[in-house]
Design goal:
CATH architecture of the largest domain: 3-Layer(aba) Sandwich
Strand content: 15-25%
CATH topology of the largest domain: Rossmann fold
Number of domains: 3
Largest sheet: 6 strands, parallel
Number of strands: 11
CATH superfamily of the largest domain: Glycogen Phosphorylase B
CATH class of the largest domain: Alpha Beta
Helix content: 40-55%
Distance between the termini: 55 Å
Radius of gyration: 22 Å
């Protein structure tokens, strides 16, 4: 474990931590980092319990990385779908605010929450034959997994070096390839999917409704000229634009003027579940790469991606341009109008 490469990794981590804080705090962080790796090594050294092949013993528990976002969990739904199709029973521990992504999924047997100790205490520790740590640089999942002594353990951090190239190319396919190695080589690829609960029918709108994902918390994904783009989209015939997403108040204030018949400003006014329901009903989506763009694509909505970082194809499962247009340079209103007309 503590070979030359590992020592170099620890050194680089310490330099990264110390650059952001003082040496004392960096020392505490690096101690936690090494402690996590030691705990992982102990977990892997524990003899694995051998179970006879039987459908009722194919129980898997996924521990969602505490640092991951909505979009990461959306990509992992393809793994849950594939495992369900092979007869596995899947349970997950997730962040409670991520529930709208999977709450109605028939592919998941039970859902538990990191921030709700009462649900965690109800975990049937003896039930699970496999436990998957999909964590990245956190010790929470590793320490929690010590309770599952008899379960076979899949620790992403331990195996990431084998899959680093695949993860850099396409996150969603990498999850499946990683888990196929440990679970079942017959797992087939399935697109990420969101299952909606019963909804009330909505009247057919008189105009085309296009959701523009403006509110994004990640600064590097924001387009500084987005207000100018929206000005250029004014007076588009037979189109109504709905501004959605969540953002800090300063950035959101740049769009206060867009409250008129052609625009509906819903930035910071909908929770994630309400936004999902909205994206399921509209006609098209425009936005930068992020979880809401992928939610729209999960509903097979025509989508224009304003990819100012060039990362959409790495994150997305799509390999065709049938319903998506990816703009990497020209974000002008005229270009967006032209692409929108070709899609819908």
């Amino acid at each position: 474990m503590f070979d030359t490469n590992y020592k170099i990794r620890v050194r680089n981590k310490f330099l990264k931590y110390s650059a952001k804080s003082n040496c004392f705090l960096a020392l505490i962080k690096i101690t936690g980092f090494i402690g996590r790796d030691i705990a992982n090594a102990i977990l892997l050294a524990i003899p694995r319990h051998s179970h006879p092949t039987h459908s009722k013993l194919k129980d898997i528990l996924f521990l969602e990385p505490f640092k991951q976002g909505y979009g990461d969990l959306l990509f992992q739904t393809s793994v849950f779908e594939s495992l369900k199709a092979q007869g596995y029973r899947v349970s997950v521990v997730i962040q409670q605010n991520h529930l709208p992504i999977i709450e109605n999924s028939p592919c998941i047997n039970e859902i538990f929450f990191w921030n709700d100790p009462k649900t965690l205490l109800k975990l049937p520790f003896k039930q699970f034959t496999h436990i998957a740590f999909l964590g990245r640089d956190t010790i929470r999942e590793t320490l929690f997994g010590l309770a599952f002594v008899k379960a076979q353990k899949i620790i992403l951090d331990e195996n990431l070096s084998k899959w680093i190239d695949l993860f850099s190319q396409n996150h969603s396919r990498a999850w499946l390839e990683l888990l196929k190695t440990y679970f079942d080589q017959n797992l087939n690829w399935k697109e990420p999917k969101i299952y909606l609960g019963p909804t009330s029918p909505t009247p057919t709108p008189e105009s085309i409704r296009v959701a523009i994902i403006v509110g994004v918390n990640s600064e590097e994904k924001r387009l500084k000229n987005m207000p100018q783009i929206l000005h250029g989209l004014r007076n588009t015939e037979n189109v109504r634009y709905i501004l959605v997403g969540a953002s800090d108040s300063i950035y959101a204030s740049h769009f206060n003027e867009f409250n008129e018949p052609q625009f509906s400003n819903l930035i910071n006014k909908l929770d994630y579940r309400e936004t999902i329901n909205l994206l399921a009903e509209i006609d098209a989506v425009i936005g930068t790469e992020g979880s809401l763009v992928h939610v729209g694509l999960a509903f097979h909505k025509p989508t224009i991606v304003l990819d100012n970082q060039g990362i959409f194809w790495r994150q997305s499962w799509l390999q065709s341009d049938e319903i998506v247009r990816v703009l990497t340079q020209d974000f002008s209103a005229n270009r967006i109008k032209a692409e929108l007309s070709s899609l819908i």
